[in-house]
Amino acid sequence: MRQNTEAAAEIQVETGSETRTVILGVAASDSHVVANHLIAHALRAEGFHVVNLGACTSVAEFAEAHAEHPEAEAVIIGSLNGHAHGDLQDLPAARAAGRLGCPVILGGNLSVGSYKGAADHERLYALGVDVVLSDLDELPATLAELRARATMADPVAAS
Fold first, then answer.
1. Which segments of the chain does DSSP mark as H helices, in order?
2. Domain annotation for the chain: domains and CATH numbers
3. Quick one: pLDDT at residue 53?
4. Burial code of 46-79, b = ≥16 C-beta within 10 A, e = fewer?
5. For 44-70, how does the pLDDT look when each residue is reduced to its tens digit (9 = 90+)?
6. Residue 110's pLDDT is what?
7. Is 28 exposed, middle or buried (0-12, 13-18, 19+ CB in 10 A)?
8. pTM reported for the whole predicted model
């Protein structure tokens, strides 16, 4: 797996007796990283261990990171260039192979062009994206909700 300077300098913050881990990256064809760094900073401030893969991250790289960090609660993918649907074409195969078992959250600019509609979200859900966020402020609550669902589904594994 490729390394970047931020991934090499990961900061781990303890919250009580546990550390919550998320995997963060930008879609494969997207080199925009400012929002990625801001999201990583905000999540660390919330107490998360952020495995930040940076820009131009393929589905295979997200899957490799999940294999290295099976405790990760979610994979969070940002897109600014609007090509997330094309970049995530390998997601169904990775899911079917059991390589990405945690929830996948996608946010940012999800399609090219000025018109944005529900069809954009539906295409992403069909690929295996679990949550499409339109507002970054929703991310902490979304992670809490996903964790609560996982705890209800399997209380032993989630603890």
1. 5-8, 34-45, 59-68, 84-87, 91-96, 118-127, 139-153, 155-158
2. 23-158 (3.40.50.280)
3. 98
4. bebbbbbbbbbbbbebbbbbbeebeebbbbbbbb
5. 999 999 999 999 999 999 999 999 999
6. 84
7. buried
8. 0.84
